[in-house]
Design goal:
The protein is α/β, with parallel strands linked by helices. It has two domains: about 5-170, Thiolase/Chalcone synthase (Peroxisomal Thiolase, Chain A, domain 1, 3-Layer(aba) Sandwich); about 180-320, Thiolase/Chalcone synthase (Peroxisomal Thiolase, Chain A, domain 1), CATH 3.40.47. It has ten helices and 13 strands. Helix 4 links the parallel strand 4 (about 80) and strand 5. The structure holds oxa(dethia)-CoA. Oxa(dethia)-CoA binds near residues 31, 36, 154, 217 and 254. The site of oxa(dethia)-CoA has 20 residues, from helix 2, helix 6 and helix 7.
Amino acid sequence: MNFKKSVLSSFETYLPERVVTNDDISKFVDTTHEWIFERTGIERRHLVEKNQYTHDIAVKSALKTLKSEGIGPLEIDAIIIATATSEKRCPSTSALVQGIIGASNAFAFDIQAACSGFIYALTVADSFIKSGIAKKILLISTETLSLFTDWSDRSTCILFGDGAGSCIVKENDDDDDCGIIATKLYADGTKPNLITIENSEKNNNHGHLTMQGRAVFKYAIEYMYKSMIEILEENCTTFDDIDWIIPHQANRRILESMSKMKGVPFEKIAITINEHANTSSASIPLVIDTYIKSGKIKKGDKLLLSAIGAGLVYGSALIKL
Ligand code: UT7
């Protein structure tokens, strides 16, 4: 069978209006702007307001994507949402969004692959397009990690931000070679305690995120690099052929170390962690949208996406935009 490629279009994002700086955080935990910036590259983050939840910010991003695409909600036939921070165990965030935006022809479900959620969701969307299960998919990554943060723990509360990013995945009708070239997913479930958000009733930790930061830092370098180099080799490509590397934004030093230790070209790595902090699965669409809107990423650019998150689950994607 001769499959057409799935293309990505109409990247949009929504960031909550409340901006919290490192200095703001230093007012309630023992930290400083200098420590946070030097150790992570983070300067500020957007956090949801009281009574603003994961599906609310997803809706705002989704409506912008529909507008950019020039379509109504009834033209969408699937909504796939990547999130690790659903407001409810059920219904899913995607079902809530489907109802609110009135996408009544769409089936809807969530994917939970922590910070790798966008790449996992992209892989599923790509398969649905290629198999004909769906023709036009609304893909959203949406996270409110601030609602799962222990705001008295300085080792984690400085790291995270909230936000949502979305795009359309559809069959490429144009006579070009744009689209998803390949995706590659991995899991190493032998390290479940490195990053955890317990159910609120367990371990008396009130559903807060806990993390072994140093160990995660090392695995992030090894596993993101492994998934990037394997997808490049399998597709007869090298870093020279890539316009932009779009990694999950967990820590600027992870990206600097990956460059120093493994030779990943730093000038090609897109970085927005200073503005957004770590927004889990939303970080990759936030970077792509920011770089498109500022003119750095252009139509036809070749992108190499890579992420790692709790699980550990990780993966990469190769895309011609
Ligand atoms: O998206 C999920 C993936 N997550 C990640 O990839 C996170 C990966 N890990 C990291 O980004 C880093 O490990 C952190 C930013 C979380 C921590 O940086 P680090 O350089 O690994 O610091 P550390 O945990 O080894 O702590 C060094 C020191 C400790 O003090 P002592 O024991 O040396 O006296 C900490 O208590 O820094 C202290 N510390 C802080 N000091 C000021 C920890 N947090 C803070 C803070 N402000 N916020």
